[in-house]
């Protein structure tokens, strides 16, 4: 850049006086190439751009060739140079006469224009340049010229599609024309153009609702799949032309946003991403995992790729990961059923580092905890919970209902509690309720209520104001929408909340659900009770382990003398709870004991063989059964499986106190 300055500094004024637009544009082009190189000195770049801008500005009004505008504009965009009034003058010149100058522009000149305009969005100065013109009219003029073009190169297509996505432009005629042109140009296209085009179509689908024609997407997918297959079967590295890691990640993201699930592309694409995992940066890894999580069947079909991507982060101890990378990767892996607790242990340790979650948005905190709850991973230390509580202010100010609900649900399931955090989430939820019911889905309402109930009677009482607000909104929805307002799972949660309110003496809170909707479809409480009863009836079917426990109890009952076991009731429906107890054993003297036969899903996965490590749902079950029967004992799966009859009977004797 210094050498260019030595050339430009003594000549720029002369070029301007001679109106030598070609020389200045050529210098701009060279400056654009040099400024995009790694390590370019910003001060040297701006010195060169300043001199060229000052020399070119007086010429702009009389420019007649589109390239004389697009070349310097493209160079300015590359360097992020939007000052000095030149960029504004250039876009105004291109906009003059309704964009008349663009009627004769070549395809690559249109491409440079679109790319430059989309780059302007990245800075305040650039956005000010865009605000100085009628941007939609300029883009429409360019689009009209492009629609007359019949031989558009793939790189031009990808650049303009990317710009459309960044500018959130919905021009169906143009995007269809471009994707059709891509089908023709694809066999000779570079890999970057193919990857960027697929990614851009996904962005357009998500941001502006554009739906590309299926035949165009299939054609693009076939070309990409062909390149992936050829690369995978290359006999030597010299003959391989791999997509770059970023391109693979972007293509997966494009497929996810398009909802494109054809295994003809997804299988080789996922495999290539897995093979490239060690060369991916944190953003590319998290984007790839996030995309795979949105593309069913994600884990069953793409398991090797998922495992490779997960291990790539773990191998580096999540070095250079930021909050978005950690949270998206954790959410994606948990949603795909990836249960390797070592990965989550490493992710938690990374998230506990102050620099990783610094500045994290509410969604990042929510996703991390939601993922941990899905895989039943309770952090070994309290540092992550402490870090989250330190962000209570940000959560209180900016969290959405979904984020609050997921965080509360996760804390409840993991049996964790921090009053600062719960207070902030409750306050935010109350504020959102006051702003309008549209902030909440029925599921979110019920998850919040259920989470507070799981956390215990004291928490329900402490946040009675929020509980009342949530119940009132549930009541309103039931009155307006009836049974479509809530799913069966939501209704079961409401019933369990009602049981907890009854225990703490909820008074008016108890009566809210009872009165909701009387005269239309019955009370909301009645419907919730019915739903809980139906679910409980379905749960009566005993598992193999439950049948083994029952058989062992019957052997003990037969052998005991005097008789210590009076009766054994399997799959006992508790009417007042609308809940099934696995086994109710009545002992001599009238003592009744509930025996719950608990498999792995009742316990926190990273605390093996710890009977106290029940999840929140199981703890709530035991609490409610205990109020009816007095005694509830759990037989964890590790105390039963792979043991002989004498050992199993010994477990039962210990549990029952025989």
TrEMBL record:
It comes from the Eukaryota. One of its GO terms (molecular function) is RNA binding. This is RAP domain-containing protein. GO terms for biological process: chloroplast rRNA processing; mitochondrial RNA processing; regulation of mitochondrial mRNA stability. It comes from Edaphochlamys debaryana. Coiled coil: none annotated. GO terms for cellular component: chloroplast; mitochondrial matrix; ribonucleoprotein granule. Signal peptide: none annotated.
């Amino acid at each position: 850049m210094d050498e260019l300055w030595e050339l430009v500094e003594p000549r720029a004024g002369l070029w301007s006086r001679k109106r030598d637009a070609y020389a200045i544009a050529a210098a701009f082009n060279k400056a654009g190439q040099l400024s995009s190189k790694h390590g370019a000195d910003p001060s040297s770049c701006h010195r060169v751009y300043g001199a060229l801008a000052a020399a070119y500005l007086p010429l702009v009004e009389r420019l007649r060739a589109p390239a004389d505008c697009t070349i310097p504009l493209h160079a300015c965009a590359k360097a992020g140079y939007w000052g000095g009034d030149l960029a504004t003058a250039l876009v105004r010149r291109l906009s003059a006469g309704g964009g008349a100058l663009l009627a004769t522009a070549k395809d690559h000149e249109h491409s440079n224009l679109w790319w430059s305009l989309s780059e302007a969005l990245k800075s305040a100065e650039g956005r000010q340049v865009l605000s100085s013109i009628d941007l939609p009219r300029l883009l429409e003029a360019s689009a009209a010229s492009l629609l007359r073009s019949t031989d558009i190169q793939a790189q031009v297509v990808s650049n303009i599609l990317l710009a459309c996505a960044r500018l959130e432009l919905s021009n169906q005629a143009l995007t269809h024309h471009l994707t059709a042109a891509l089908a023709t140009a694809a066999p000779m296209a570079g890999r970057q153009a193919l990857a960027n085009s697929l990614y851009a179509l996904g962005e357009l689908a998500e941001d502006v609702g554009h739906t590309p024609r299926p035949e165009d997407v299939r054609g693009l997918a076939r070309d990409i799949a062909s390149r992936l297959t050829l690369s995978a079967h290359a006999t030597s590295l010299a003959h391989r032309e791999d997509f770059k890691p970023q391109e693979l990640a972007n293509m997966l993201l494009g497929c996810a946003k398009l909802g494109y699930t054809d295994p003809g592309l997804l299988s080789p694409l996922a495999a290539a991403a897995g093979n490239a995992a060690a060369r991916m940066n944190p953003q590319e890894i998290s984007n790839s995992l996030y995309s795979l999580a949105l593309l069913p069947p994600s884990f069953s079909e793409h398991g090797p790729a998922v495992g490779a991507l997960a291990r790539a982060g773990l191998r580096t101890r999540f070095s250079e990961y930021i909050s978005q990378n950690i949270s998206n990767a954790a959410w994606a892996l948990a949603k795909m059923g990836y249960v390797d607790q070592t990965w989550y242990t490493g992710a938690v340790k990374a998230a506990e580092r102050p620099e990783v979650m610094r500045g994290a948005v509410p969604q990042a905190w929510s996703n991390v905890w939601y993922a941990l709850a899905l895989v039943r991973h309770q952090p070994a230390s309290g540092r992550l919970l402490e870090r989250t509580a330190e962000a209570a202010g940000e959560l209180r100010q900016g969290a959405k209902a979904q984020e609050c609900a997921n965080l509360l649900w996760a804390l409840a399931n993991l049996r964790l509690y921090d009053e600062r955090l719960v207070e902030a989430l409750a306050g935010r939820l109350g504020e959102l309720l006051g702003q309008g019911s549209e902030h909440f889905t029925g599921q979110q309402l019920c998850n919040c209520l259920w989470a507070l109930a799981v956390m215990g009677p004291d928490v329900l009482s402490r946040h009675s104001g929020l509980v009342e607000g949530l119940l009132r909104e549930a009541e309103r929805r039931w009155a307006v929408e009836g049974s479509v307002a809530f799913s069966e799972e939501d209704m079961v949660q409401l019933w369990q909340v009602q049981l907890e309110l009854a225990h703490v003496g909820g008074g008016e809170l108890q009566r809210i659900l009872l009165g909701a909707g009387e005269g239309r479809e019955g009370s909301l409480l009645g419907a919730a009770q019915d739903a809980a009863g139906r679910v409980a009836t379905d749960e009566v079917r005993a598992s193999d382990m439950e049948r083994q426990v029952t058989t062992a109890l019957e052997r003990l009952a037969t052998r005991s003398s005097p008789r210590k076991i009076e009766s054994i009731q399997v799959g006992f429906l508790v009417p007042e709870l609308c809940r099934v107890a696995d086994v109710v054993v009545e002992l001599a003297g009238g003592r009744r004991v509930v025996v719950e036969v608990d498999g792995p899903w009742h316990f926190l996965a990273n605390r093996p063989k710890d009977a106290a490590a029940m999840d929140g749902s199981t703890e709530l079950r035991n609490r409610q059964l205990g109020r009816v029967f007095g005694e509830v004992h759990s037989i964890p799966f590790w105390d039963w499986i792979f043991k002989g009859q004498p050992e199993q009977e010994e477990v039962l004797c210990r549990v029952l106190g025989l």
